[in-house]
Every structure is written in C-alpha cells, then in structure tokens.
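YM 10:42: XdhC/CoxI family protein sequence, as discussed on the call
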Amino acid sequence: MDQNGIMAEAADDLDVVIDAAALWLAAGRHVALATVIETWGSAPRRAGSHLVIRDDGIFEGSVSGGCVEGDVIVQALELIAAGGGFRRLDYGVADAQAWEVGLACGGRISILLQTVDGAHFPPALIERIVDARAQGLPLGLATDLTSGATRENAAPLKEWFFNLYPPRRRLAIVGAVHIAQLLVPMARLAGYETTVIDPRGMFAAAARFDQPVDENWPDEALDRWRPDGGSAVVSLTHDPKLDDPALARALNSPAFYIGALGSRKTHAARLERLGAAGFTDKELARIHGPAGLPIGAAGPAEIAVSILAEMTTVLRSSK
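YM 10:58: structure's back
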C-alpha cells in the first residue's frame, strides 16, 4: 500500500486511477476525472488516459508527460469548488509558454474534465469499471461532449467520446525456471498480475519467488485461472508434458498473447503435436514461438525482456 492506501504493486495505470477514485469516493471525498479525448502529433498519452483529482489536490494518473497536469489539477479544483461541472481543455505548444501550460514535445491534446457526480461521471460507473475488469470483461462508456455526461450503453451522439476499458492485465507463466524469476518482477512493473505454474516440486519452491507457485498441472491450473482477453500465457518448460496442455488451454481461450520457449525445431514439433490434437493452422498461428522479440537476447534477463516486449507489441497492436 502507498501513503494513500492504494495498492500499487502489479497494478496497471488504469488500476491505480480507478482504485484511487473508488477509495476516495468511499471516504466521502469529492473527485474530478480528466480524460484525454483527442490527440495530434507527438502527444505523450493516448486517448482514454485518465488523471483523477481529489478535492484537496491529491491526484493519481496522468494526461501528459507532466506538461499540463498542474493546470488540469487547478481547473479540477475550481470545478469541485463550484459544486460540479465539466470543461474541455485544449493544449499545444505555446512557444514562450510551452514550459508553463503547453506541450513542449510539439503535440496537441484535448482533455475532458468532469466532476464525479450523477450529472457528469456517475460514481456507480467507477464500480462498474472495477467489476468488469475483475471479471475479465471489457466495458464501453460513452460521453456526450456537449453536456459532459458519461453513460453506459448510450446511443452514439453527434459530439461524443467512446472509451473502452479493457480487462486487467494478467500473465500466467508455466515453468518456475530462471527466466520466470526475472519475468515475474518485470511483468509486475508493467502492470500484470502474475501467476507461476509448475507441478515439479523442486522447481516450485516458494523461496525462489516472492509469491506462491501453483503446483497443479498446467491444464488444471489454467482451467481455474480462466484466461481472458487481458491475459497472456507463456510456457517456459521445453517439456511437452507441461507445454502442450498449457498451450491447448490457452488456444481455447481469448488470451491476447500465447508464447512458448524453445528452438525453431522444438516449436515445429510442438505445432505438429497440437495440430494432430485438432488445432487448425490459423489457431496455431496464435502461438509465438520461440517466444520473444528477436533482439539477440543472451541470458535469462534479456530473454525475459524480449518476451515482455513481444507481449507489449501484441497488446498494443490489437488496440
């Protein structure tokens, strides 16, 4: 927990913002939400990114690389003090003022600022986002830019912004090997909840990880873990008895990334076995093997970097 009582470990950007808003609202505080609704050029944050502001100026998240947050927070506090409302804020390079309230990177962004209340961003939607993500489901919210009102399942309007909240990011690693020991903390820093699966007692020793290791067979463990659209599954064992059932379960799920370590020869044999089990070429093409971007990785740490980089590439290319 951080000083505000917010769980920071293994939390992605959206977790931090939404969990902070939920905590503050439960404590009876007034809250405003800033959302990037449009970008041009080299804007540092994507559309849909959030900054949440408490009535005393405490905030979480970001809508730029630090260029405009100060002004957004000031205007958010003004809205809260006025009893609620919304504003559209547009920022770009302002030459002499670029380091005050502008984007020194050269891009432009538009931000919608709303108070979290029934007329603008209803508090119940914060809980809906939390619940949907926990269930592994995406949630779409539409905002009428003329009234500043955000609703679920709203009909498209002439001037509106649609934001899709994805499921929480999760990573299941099959094989409690050396690479897994390095991939776990890297993935957590990138916002993934991690699970390590290995039924081999000597590999699954809890002392090798700072989290419990699931000692069930991979197919049983993944049946309970239930990969969803925010999930990645990576098998690191090189052992068909463990790799194949794990990959079969992953292929039968909506996991956004499936990877398996091993040489090209090993991977070809793996695909042949899974093909004989009934998987089509199209389905087998979802498996990234050997897992990881070809960065010339040498050693467990660099291999872990290459795998996380490939996961990120697939995750972002799907949006």
